[in-house]
Amino acid sequence: MANLSQIRSSQVAAAAEPDTLIFPAKEGGNEVRSLKGKTKAQLKAMCLDYGLHVSGNMTTLRTRLQTLSEKFRNDPASCDLTPVKHHAHKGPRDGPQKTHPKQSANRRAGIIDTERITERSKDTRTANEIQELLHWAERTVARLPYKPPKADITSPQTPSVPVSF
Questions:
Q1: 55 or 117: which carries more pLDDT confidence?
Q2: 158: in domain
Q3: Is the pTM of this model over 0.70?
Q4: Structural domains counted in the chain
Q5: In a domain, 23, yes or no
Q6: Phi, psi of 20 (to 5 degrees)
């Protein structure tokens, strides 16, 4: 970073004027910028450039920029503008995100003291249980074979209810 001794004399002279301040440059070194005649939107853009808060009135924004400039003059190393990695606030989460139960589930829980039991959709039977079920089905089919229903006596073309004219 730039030291105070590295700041050119023209920049020091320019910084001596009111509303003209020395700021850290993004590519290293420093830059002289004036706050005179800046609109609120321009001051907000400058605050964004230096990573400062952008809320407040024009006086607050100027004060923030002046404080940053003074800090940079006193200790240029403390005003590093290189992007830093943001860390998650609470660290990685284990398990799924918890959701609140629906109103109907809350009402049901208040009425019934037991929790809902969810049956698994996966077949949890063993191979022996499945084989026993298949043998039972074969015996049942042999004992009770399928008999198709008897055909109706009336044909579908003739109406079953007499029609009177």
A1: 55
A2: no
A3: no
A4: 1
A5: yes
A6: -115, 125
